[in-house]
Amino acid sequence: MRLPAFAYELPRDLDEALELLKTYGPECKILAGGTDLLVRMKQGLTKPAHLISLKALPELATIQESGGLLRIGAAVRLADILTYQPILDRRPGLYEAVTAIGAPSIQHFRGTIGGNLCQGNRCQFYDQSNYFRGARQTCNKAGGKTCFAWEGGSDRCHSICQSDAAPVMIAMDAQVLVQSKRGVRNLPLAELYSGVGERPLTLSDDEMLIEIQVPDSGSGTGTAFEKLAYRSAIDYAVVSAGALVRVEGNRIVQANLVIGAVSRSPLKISGVDEILKSRPVWDQQVLDEAGKVAMNAAGAFIANNMAQPADYRIQMVSVMAKRALKRALERALSGSRTMEEK
Amino acid sequence: MNRLPLEITINGEPHSLAVEPNRTLLELLRDDLHLTGAKEGCGEGVCGSCTALMDGNPVRSCLTLALEADGSHITTVEGLAQGSELDPLQQSFIDHGSVQCGFCTSGMLMTAKGLLLRDPHAGTGEIKRALSGHICRCTGYTKITEAVEAEVTRSKKER
Amino acid sequence: MPDYAFIGKSMPRVDSRAKVTGDALFTADLTFPRMLTGKILRSIHPHARILNIDVSDALRLPGVKAVVTGHDTLGKKWGVFRYTQDQQFLPTDKVRFIGEEVAAVAAVDEDTAQEALGRIRVEYEILDPVFGPMEAIAPGAPLLHDDFPQNINIHVPIHVGNVEEGFAKSYYVRDDTFTAAEDSYFHGEPYAVVARFDMDDNLEIWMPNAGPHMKAKPLSTALGIPLNKVRVRKITIGGAFGGRSEISPGDFICALLARKTGRPVKIVYTREENSIATRQGHALITTIMTGVDRDGLVIARDITCYMDGGAYSSTGPIATSVPFLCMEQAYKMEHVRYDGYRIYTNKPPRGMIRIHGRAFAGGVDIQLDMIAEHLGIDPFDIRMINAREAGEYTNTKSYVASCAMKETITKAADRAGWKEKWGKLPPMHGIGIGCNSVQTGFPMGIRGGSQALIKLNEEGGATVISGVVDNGQGNDNMLVQIAAEELGIRPEDVQLVTADTEVTPSDPGAYSQVSTFIGGQAVKNAAENVRKLLFETASELLKADAADLVARDRMIFAKGCPEAGIPLPKVIRRILACGKSVSGKGDYWPKVDAKREWVSNPFGQMCGAFSFGTTIAEVEVDSETGQVRVLEVTAAQDVGFAVNPLVLEGQFQGGIAMGGQGGMLTESHTWDGGFVLNPTQLEYKVPLACDMPKINTIIVESDDPDGPYGAKEAGMSIAMSAAQAYAAAISNAIGVYMTDFPITPDKILRAIAKKKEEAGPEAGTTE
């Protein structure tokens, strides 16, 4: 399968990259690992006239921790996240999420964390070849006026954010640094996502993701990521859930739950915090309730954008939510937030 | 498209080339250099048949621009053997019956090689996880896993 | 057992080295000087009349060397059988599925070819499509082919005995329907064709194939050139799995472009094209009515099967028959009736596939479990009671000379711990058994036999010339093992010239499981004839009786006196010096009933031998997600004789992955009308290494009297019985018999929920 033609830009420093972004704006795309972008280009889903390579920008590929803040450059390879001991030690949810992305030999050496967070939204009618899509009306996401994934059609796009890293990082209250020639913006990772299927990121055309910052919530915190997929690797999630739970003594004082793979952006579930805070810690019923809340929230978004049946996916939201919360809770309670011995 | 210069070492041999930006590493290998060991099984980075090592790390060459490999050392399946002497991993694949139709073989070998370069003591779990980025329709993966396990054991003994 | 040097030994395959070095050339790896890139324009409508095709704009594009449409063909319709001639390779009248070939271009590079496709204007008159077999045979349904009313492509009617009588005297009768969506081959290698005409106007053509001789004749007919000018060449092949046997439009189109341009042309299919425009498996709706006596012995069985055949016939009569045949081979039945219907639909053509008929096979065995439960007996016992035995005839009158079905059942059960586990596992934990049989061959008329030629050079090196093709299953190595054994030389002394229709004699091909049984036997016979020649002269030299001679390790000696032997080259030189050549031929034609025909006379000896296999699977179901964790799979197959145990184990393991792990858990195509929504390996879920369970393989040998060394087949039976075992194990785990395949997690959860509902509010929770 051939790539369309484009101009290859190799900026030697960040400023040069930002200058290119400013010049070419909507006609260019950032090339990190390319494992998402190049597939889309081969399928004719995107035809940027310029690709801006991050190859010569090692400054975007550093991980460091200072004062409890984990700072991960957008171009950090997924493999490097997996070998960064402090993540393994204190942020097992993130470790779990990154491990679940693709497979070691696909994503982990070319795939980047920024690439995973910024990947294009997916839909079974959109992520198809030129041949397939050329035979039907153009959908909203492709610049047309219909949606094949929504019963009766729709004037909005119902594609899915399939990032495996996003749910747990949002649950961990991650922030992102976004930069352009106009300056740097610091915003919650959750706000990187627009909820608009046609244009899933809130980045302007001249902006790029520079860094993700993950705060350390201190001791008594547990994180976890659950991914439901039919195979052990390669697959995008059917449903995923990222959770962070913080306890003080025996009481839950914070619970964040984000559901992935059901909506146009990662879905923060509100109400989970209240439910978990309101009752004694060890209560299966509490988790069941939280699961139901997640399920009800997600239900509104589920569309026919994936092969797996909608009713199954909705049910699984509850299951993944409960499992992620439970494991995060167990980690928080045990005091050790690390990966359990398997 | 203008061609851009590319300095790349493939199986130890340096090349000075000029390539179009949209040339993938796979196309460079197969069509320009006639190294047809890496295969196109899907073109989308799913099957793993195109896997080559870039500076020792397995990459999907069908999703890697040739220009992104500028300055890199690429190893393909053709570069595993030293002359007529096979890499022990290749020999292990032969001995264990790990090769049926052979289409996925080069990708499997490169990922396994990359794994063992990083971790010569890789356990079964890691081996299987690494191989799970590859699709094989023939073998059911058992004998491929066994071949890599056997090479780990053999090289341990050698030390 | 005789003291074989190589037969029966686990040895590495001779083709492995080239594959691990990357030297082995697959079709897409070939390049020739001045080679053009071909691309095919495909229909985007499932059913439409072609009104006009305008290629003028495409021809104007610089770099385009030729464009072909149906008007460049002889317009003939082709079919695997004379009564299934329904397909033009480039249609002139209608397109009948999304993906069908409509036109093709040859250009200097892929980008130009792709652009040229975009410039071809096709005018269609859209017709109503039909996408399922039941809709297609309903009155008033759109007709795909004028000669086939009600869209019935094939009807195989078989009635042996009297099923009504049989049911009347049965103790227990039940009637169940089983369904399965289509599965798909997903060979590692996407289809590709390279064609060129040489300086003598001979067509040389390379493509993945399961039998080059099967490709050559239709090419010759379609191109209007003599058969001996069509050379289908040997190439490394990335899997066939029952497909890639009959000619593909891509073959013809590539040859046409090569002829028109006078240059070599290469067409490489994308993964999507491989999935939608070669072949898929059949979707099936199978209704099975079975009557048994008090002990569970089947007295009568009545099966109706509707197969979604897609737009063209392909190997229709075979596909319609095989699931039934596998069943009647595996199990005894006094009375049986079968109505198999292959129905045309506006979907890609369906072909024979390694796990053909998972609804049929899965259904037969699940139903046996249902019956066993009703009778209060063990699924193991009901298999044993009904299992085929040697010396019996199948209902359609094939004699089963060798059969170790019961041994496969008991051995698998022992190894899997069946007795300890059946009925004793905790909820959501299950074990299941599946049994099947596969025919070693079909009646193939003039193509039913294989011939091999062997020549020896003066150094004792042998060249074996055989039409046998290797799709990756190890056939090349099998020929080398046999030749080396019979000639008394070493594997490295054997050169193979195989699967090349210019040079090698006709061979039935690999897709009917006969490569060892027929092709290997032919090589064995040829080698024995050469050995006879050698022994004649050696007996003079050694002053011993030819009957007392042994050929081994490049020496010929009298039995018991290896130290007093003669080196083989010396014997060869002696023969040559006497003015005689050192070569030989041998062939093998299986003893089949030449009058047996799939539809008009489905009775008589089907093939030379049958393999039998049993798989047992143990699974754990996550009752919250419906996901299945397969703990252990045990596969036992009667292969007749294991020519190479290492190769057989690989076949079993691969069969379990394809038939069970993929075939029963995740594999099916999803559709949007006539569009395949999952043409790539991302969304069509073929299992990965970490998905696979622990596998135990057991080789059982019944020493077939006709098979070479007693060997039969080993590539298909486990794939089928694994599918059955997985379905049975999951059903056992959740306490619900699953009747729709594949058994995806959502179906499992629905079944569990339904069972809970039916059990009522008083029943406890399942966990």
For the structure shown, list the relevant keywords.
heterotrimer, A: 342 residues, alpha+beta, Uridine Diphospho-n-acetylenolpyruvylglucosamine Reductase, domain 2, Uridine Diphospho-n-acetylenolpyruvylglucosamine Reductase, domain 3, four-stranded antiparallel sheet, C: 767 residues, Aldehyde Oxidoreductase, domain 4, Aldehyde Oxidoreductase, domain 3, seven-stranded mixed sheet, six-stranded mixed sheet, 19 helices, 24% strand
Report low-confidence residues of chain B grouped into runs of 5 or more. none
Count of helical segments of chain B?
5
How many E-type strands of chain A?
12
CATH class designation of the largest domain in chain B: Alpha Beta
Number of E-state strands of chain B: 5
Task: Report the C-alpha radius of gyration of chain A, rounded.
Answer: 20 Å
Quickly count the domains of chain A. 2
* Inertia-based shape of chain B: globular
Described by the principal axes of the CA atoms, the overall outline of chain A is globular
Structural commentary:
- The complex is a heterotrimer of chains A (342), B (159) and C (767).
- Chain A starts with 6 loop residues before the first strand and ends in an 8-residue tail after the last helix.
- Chain A has helices spanning 14-24, 37-42, 78-82, 85-90, 92-99, 104-110, 113-117, 130-134, 165-171, 272-278, 284-299, 310-334, and strands spanning 7-9, 28-31, 50-53, 63-66, 69-73, 175-180, 183-188, 208-214, 221-228, 239-248, 251-260, 267-268.
- In chain A, the strands form 3 sheets. Chain A has a 5-stranded antiparallel sheet. A 4-stranded antiparallel sheet of chain A has the order 9-10-11-12, with helices on both faces.
- Chain A is globular and about 60 Å long.
- Chain A has 12 helices and 12 strands.
- In chain A, helix 11 runs antiparallel to helix 12.
- Chain A has 2 domains: 1-56, 2-Layer Sandwich (Uridine Diphospho-n-acetylenolpyruvylglucosamine Reductase, domain 2), CATH 3.30.43.10; 61-117 and 160-334, Uridine Diphospho-n-acetylenolpyruvylglucosamine Reductase, domain 3 (2-Layer Sandwich), CATH 3.30.465.
- With 342 residues, chain A is an alpha+beta fold.
- Helices cover 32% and strands 20% of the residues of chain A.
- By secondary structure, chain B is of the alpha+beta class.
- Chain B has 2 domains: 4-79, Ubiquitin-like (UB roll), CATH 3.10.20; 88-158, [2Fe-2S]-binding domain (DNA polymerase, domain 1, Orthogonal Bundle), CATH 1.10.150.
- Helices cover 35% and strands 16% of the residues of chain B.
- Chain B is built from 5 helices and 5 strands, in the order ββαβββαααα.
- Chain B has helices at 25-32, 88-95, 105-118, 124-131, 142-158; strands at residues 4-10, 13-19, 51-54, 57-60, 73-75.
- Chain B has a 5-stranded mixed sheet, with helices on one face.
- In chain B, strand 1 (4-10) and strand 2 form a beta hairpin.
- The radius of gyration of chain B is 16 Å and the shape is globular.
- In chain B, 66% of the residues are buried.
- Chain C is an alpha+beta fold and 767 residues long.
- Chain C has 19 helices and 29 strands.
- A 7-stranded mixed sheet of chain C has the order 3-5-1-12-9-10-11, with helices on both faces. A 6-stranded mixed sheet of chain C has the order 7-15-14-13-8-29.
- The radius of gyration of chain C is 27 Å and the shape is globular.
- The mean pLDDT of chain C is 96.
- The chains are: A alpha+beta (342), B alpha+beta (159), C alpha+beta (767).
